Amino acid sequence: MQLLWKKFVKENFEFNIDECGIELGTPNVGYTYTVTKTAVLHVITHGSGTFRYQGRTYHLEKGDIFLLKEGMEVSYTAAKNNPWTYFWVGLSGKQALNYLSRSSIVDNVVIQQQNIADISRVIQKICHTAERMQIEKSDDIKLNQYVFELLYDLQKTFPKKFTYTEPEVDPKVQIALQFMNQNYKHAISVNKIADAANVSRSYLYKTFRKYFNTSPKDYLHHLRMYHASQHLIHTQEPIYAIAEMVGYHHDPLIFSRAFKRHFNMNPSEYRNIYSKLHSDDTKPS
Question: GO molecular function, one example (predicted)?
Fold first, then answer.
């Protein structure tokens, strides 16, 4: 039984907390599936259960942790007599995964019988903060603080040798980013972005793949979808007007289709769900 399952809108390519939750296990009930999320860390706070991966069965109990990574085929089940309770946090983004890879948990997947008090505490803080999210108190900033604290605690508790090279960001990429951030409201094309940065279209594509692991076109799309989502949550502007605001001029239907592909729901559904959640979060307790 899920006591909490909170999902978050992806806002950038470098770092995202995708979701978090609390599961109160039902005896002999669990999940079997192929993981589609980038990385989801679980910590068991009460009870016990089993985790199966690559033909191996782990008997887990309070104080153990396990990590799910994209592509893994897993099965995990609460114990019959003492079903577990666990908290989980899902992360994505290039920077988040780089930090996570500094911990040996990415290689071991399951860690048992270790002192993880700090890790458990911060995961629980993430879930409880998400549950009582109050934007007017900057809980969104606090949530990011806790996630970085989690990544630090993982590396500190389960250290792993790593190398780090200071990236040399191409200044022309910065120009392209600035141009997109200033002009996403307009009907700009990749060619216009390349012209603004004084580079060829192919060079722009290669540098974006290098630094952001995406294309300029997809980056612009994500930028527009993010701003559209914020307009839907925080304003009462009609959808056709929001389409104009994020660069879909005279094409509200194309905007709605693109939005649905991105968020798996249409703009009206998104507004109904997330504007209500935002309203509830900002009500005084």
Answer: sequence-specific DNA binding
Reported pTM:
0.58
Residues 6+ apart with CB under 8 A from 231: 237, 242, 245, 246
DSSP type of residue 264:
S
pLDDT band at 282 (very low <50, low <70, confident <90, very high): very low
CATH number at residue 152: 2.60.120.280
Residues 149, 199 within the same domain: no
Task: Give the range of the structural domain holding residue 262, as residue numbers without chain letter.
Answer: 171-280
H-assigned helices in the chain = 94-100, 105-108, 117-131, 139-157, 171-183, 190-197, 201-212, 216-234, 239-245, 252-263, 267-282
